[in-house]
């Protein structure tokens, strides 16, 4: 396994970093203060083709790998920005690519690649079901060549900046299936045509993360917009989660390295009691430990990406990469905050903004405790804990 970036990957990293340099810290502080979606940044990413890197060339995309996409997102976050407002399009379109019909691919993928259509919204989690996805209650009743959908979703992000939503719904009720993962279907919802059938309540959070509660009432969705077979949607969603874990881990690693970059620079320059504070082991050792942990998590991320790009489904590696990256990033965030001291709380130094962002990956898009439970019973063969 080669641990060095290829020439093409270095070119990707440098090009993305150059684009990010046009969006300085002031831009991100303003978006954060107003809890605004970074429209200009996402548009620039789309126009440059970075959001379509995983779409095959035959559909107008970049024909790249998950490793390429991971590098793009890591670079964005290591530059001080955030890839979260745009990253969903990279993995949601994978459901269409792997399981959609030829007609769906021809209809959607070229427009996504051309940055004229956004597939950013992902409707899975529900208020009562939480992480127990099989317990969702949103239901799609078949009426001729349409489904009529009723239900509710929560933590549906980027809804206001998406043309389509990938929606997981029941087509057979939980009580009527033999296997709890059966009876779930995936629908492509054209939000431009949904009208009053979907109502949205924005949820304010401690970071600039545009997310919502969505209520659906008598929404009509053409059967031709169903992805794959009816009732098999759970496995379609799962097939994309490994890519999601890898990409999220890459963003988190970017943040962690950003913390280390900023804190070590400050620790070399900040002089107290006649010496740089980075000379003190109480400052130096936490940064060194966090850096080592970030590098270890990065290796697991690259292993997961390599297996995914080879056609495997690296469940352990992808989940472990997200787990390790989130923990290492949190350690780096705390080490950076301690290094900056009181200045870390000042907005102009950026640490406080990224510090708030660093807490999210511990609980989302999957809680670390669920990853540990997965490793415990799926990998180690221990009794199932839930």
Automatic annotation (TrEMBL):
<feature type="domain" description="Acyl-CoA dehydrogenase/oxidase C-terminal">
    <location>
        <begin position="231"/>
        <end position="361"/>
    </location>
</feature>
<dbReference type="Pfam" id="PF02770">
    <property type="entry name" value="Acyl-CoA_dh_M"/>
</dbReference>
<dbReference type="InterPro" id="IPR036250">
    <property type="entry name" value="AcylCo_DH-like_C"/>
</dbReference>
<dbReference type="Pfam" id="PF00441">
    <property type="entry name" value="Acyl-CoA_dh_1"/>
</dbReference>
<keyword id="KW-0274">FAD</keyword>
<dbReference type="InterPro" id="IPR009100">
    <property type="entry name" value="AcylCoA_DH/oxidase_NM_dom_sf"/>
</dbReference>
<comment type="similarity">
    <text>Belongs to the acyl-CoA dehydrogenase family.</text>
</comment>
<keyword id="KW-0285">Flavoprotein</keyword>
<dbReference type="InterPro" id="IPR013786">
    <property type="entry name" value="AcylCoA_DH/ox_N"/>
</dbReference>
<dbReference type="InterPro" id="IPR037069">
    <property type="entry name" value="AcylCoA_DH/ox_N_sf"/>
</dbReference>
<feature type="domain" description="Acyl-CoA dehydrogenase/oxidase N-terminal">
    <location>
        <begin position="6"/>
        <end position="114"/>
    </location>
</feature>
<dbReference type="InterPro" id="IPR046373">
    <property type="entry name" value="Acyl-CoA_Oxase/DH_mid-dom_sf"/>
</dbReference>
<keyword id="KW-0560">Oxidoreductase</keyword>
<feature type="domain" description="Acyl-CoA oxidase/dehydrogenase middle">
    <location>
        <begin position="121"/>
        <end position="218"/>
    </location>
</feature>
<dbReference type="InterPro" id="IPR006089">
    <property type="entry name" value="Acyl-CoA_DH_CS"/>
</dbReference>
<dbReference type="InterPro" id="IPR006091">
    <property type="entry name" value="Acyl-CoA_Oxase/DH_mid-dom"/>
</dbReference>
<protein>
    <submittedName>
        <fullName>Acyl-CoA/acyl-ACP dehydrogenase</fullName>
    </submittedName>
</protein>
<dbReference type="Pfam" id="PF02771">
    <property type="entry name" value="Acyl-CoA_dh_N"/>
</dbReference>
<dbReference type="InterPro" id="IPR009075">
    <property type="entry name" value="AcylCo_DH/oxidase_C"/>
</dbReference>
């Amino acid at each position: 396994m080669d641990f060095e970036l290829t020439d093409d990957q270095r070119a990707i990293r440098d090009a993305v970093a150059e684009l990010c340099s046009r969006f300085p810290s002031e831009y991100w502080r303003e978006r954060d203060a107003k809890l605004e979606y970074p429209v200009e940044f996402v548009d620039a990413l789309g126009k440059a083709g970075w959001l379509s890197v995983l779409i095959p060339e035959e559909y107008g995309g970049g024909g790249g790998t998950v490793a390429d996409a991971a590098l793009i997102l890591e670079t964005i976050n290591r530059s001080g920005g955030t890839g979260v407002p745009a990253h969903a399009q990279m993995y949601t379109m994978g459901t269409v690519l792997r399981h959609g019909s030829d007609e769906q691919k021809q209809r959607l993928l070229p427009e996504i690649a051309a940055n004229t259509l956004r597939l950013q919204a992902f409707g899975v989690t529900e208020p009562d079901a939480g992480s127990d996805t099989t317990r969702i209650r949103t239901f799609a009743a078949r009426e001729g060549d349409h489904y009529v959908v009723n239900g509710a979703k929560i933590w549906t992000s980027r809804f206001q900046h998406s043309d389509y939503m990938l929606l997981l719904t029941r087509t057979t009720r939980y009580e009527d299936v033999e296997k709890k993962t059966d009876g779930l279907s995936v629908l492509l919802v054209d939000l431009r045509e949904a009208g009053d059938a979907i109502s949205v309540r924005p949820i304010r959070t401690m970071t600039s993360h545009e997310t919502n509660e969505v209520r659906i009432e008598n929404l009509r969705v053409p059967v031709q917009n169903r992805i794959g077979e009816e009732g098999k949607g759970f496995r379609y969603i799962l097939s994309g989660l490994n890519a999601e874990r890898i990409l999220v881990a890459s963003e988190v690693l970017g943040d962690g390295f950003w913390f280390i970059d900023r804190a070590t620079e400050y620790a070399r320059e900040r002089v107290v009691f006649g010496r740089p504070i980075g000379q003190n082991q109480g400052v130096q050792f936490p940064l060194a430990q966090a850096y080592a942990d970030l590098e270890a998590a990065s290796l697991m991320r690259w292993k997961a990406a390599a297996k995914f790009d080879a056609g495997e489904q690296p469940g352990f590696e992808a989940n472990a990469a997200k787990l390790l990256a989130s923990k290492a990033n949190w350690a780096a965030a705390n080490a950076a905050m301690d290094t900056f001291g009181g200045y870390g709380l000042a907005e102009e130094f950026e640490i406080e903004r990224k510090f708030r962002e660093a807490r999210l990956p511990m609980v989302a898009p999957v809680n670390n405790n669920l990853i540990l439970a997965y490793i415990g019973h799926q990998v180690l063969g221990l009794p199932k804990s839930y």
